[in-house]
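step: validate -> pass
step: tokenize input -> pass
step: predict -> running
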Amino acid sequence: MFSIDLNADLGEHPDSNLDEMIMPFISSCNIACGGHIGDETSVRQTLILAKRFNVAVGAHPSYSDKENFGRKILDIQPGKLAEDVKEQISLVSRICQEEGVTLHHIKPHGALYNHAASNRFVSELILEVLKDTVPGIYWMGFASSESEKIAKENNYPFITEGFADRKYESDGSLRLRTLEGAVLNPRQVLDQVEEIVINHRVHAEEWIDLSIQSLCLHGDTKGAVTLSKEINQHLVTKGVQITAVQ
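step: predict -> pass
step: emit ->
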């Protein structure tokens, strides 16, 4: 038997029951912490749920841009970006301490995640924030990205991530959400999950090798609750253990 981490981006929906229904089927979560959505109340609420279901807790910082849900690269000074990311991570870190929960990882959100994946400077900025704010905490990011390269060069613990519900392009990137077919339907999700986890590959225009430690299902994807259960059960029947990266 081998294992995979199944993670979901949570604390992003006004209906907290959605998060509670997803929690039993995942092993780690990424909690929105005020950049694209969320506040201290929602962070604490989601974190307490994660504690109850023994789900590893991650902070999910983004560009401070609620209007675009953190899905647009902002033209801001590096110092301001570093300050914003540090503030978001610190919020989750503080609440973890107050609730007796270990902060497991940091995973940037949306445009910040994708920008870092392709931009060395942004990845270096994120790394410096992590080292300054929560040194040694896992950094979760796109597999085979600039983020992974920077982490390896600096001997920083990194979790390679792939996506259950998003279409890949031939260069290994994710299809832009504005393009047709960017978000997969439920049947496509299960097919892609099996290929990524079992066969270590993903289909774009052709097959691409893909080795990951964590698989993401977006909490705001249509039918996410049902999908989380189906993905979990599908992998377990294939002999895969769902567990957070240790």
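step: describe -> The mean pLDDT is 95.
step: cleanup -> pass
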